[in-house]
Design a protein that fits this description.
The chain is 17% helix and 45% strand. It contains three helices and nine strands; from the N terminus they run ααββββββαβββ.
């Protein structure tokens, strides 16, 4: 889980460097508030499992580097990054040259497709798809397509930007 989350944290700066006609830059700006809170539903499909794994929770972000990722169902677990973005299992954070990026537009959404170019990322993912609302430009869906047919979907809802988030949420107990 930490490895997946660390990769997600690294994706926004990567996208900034792939701006096409300013669309991606506007998405980055919309998804980089001083503070953000959101609910999420994460679902993982693996051909190795009889049924999908589903988890629900909330996430809190506070610029520049505080994150609280709180799983609430099916079990409770809190992961806090308080200025210390880990290199989970020696994962080197991605850079712009590590992905080929393309953007598509549908009636109500912008879809960003990232194809890993770096060897270690290719071993983990065949592609990463981010969906953003066309009006607000907020990313609401992240889909990670792994090798061996594994898929992880994270759907965000109740997104509040520039939310008042107490500092105590980012204190590790």
């Amino acid at each position: 889980m930490k490895r997946l989350f660390t990769l997600l944290l690294a994706l926004l700066p990567v996208l900034t460097l792939h701006a096409q006609d300013g669309v991606l830059q506007r998405i980055i700006e919309a998804n980089s508030p001083d503070a953000l809170s959101a609910s999420f539903v994460m679902q993982r499909h693996s051909p190795m499992l009889l049924e999908d794994i589903k988890a629900e929770g909330v996430v809190f972000l506070k610029a520049p580097d505080k994150i609280r990722w709180e799983l609430q169902r099916p079990s409770s677990k809190v992961t806090i990054f308080n200025g210390d973005i880990p290199s989970a299992q020696h994962l080197t954070l991605p850079k712009e040259k590590d992905f080929a990026c393309s953007a598509e537009e549908t009636s109500g959404e912008l879809i960003l497709v990232l194809i890993p170019l770096r060897k270690d990322l290719k071993r983990m993912f065949t592609r990463i798809v981010l969906q953003a609302d066309k009006k607000t430009l907020l990313i609401h869906d992240v889909m990670l397509f792994g090798k061996d047919g594994e898929e992880t979907s994270i759907k965000f809802s109740n997104i509040v930007t520039d939310a008042e988030i107490p500092q105590k949420l980012f204190i590790k107990e």
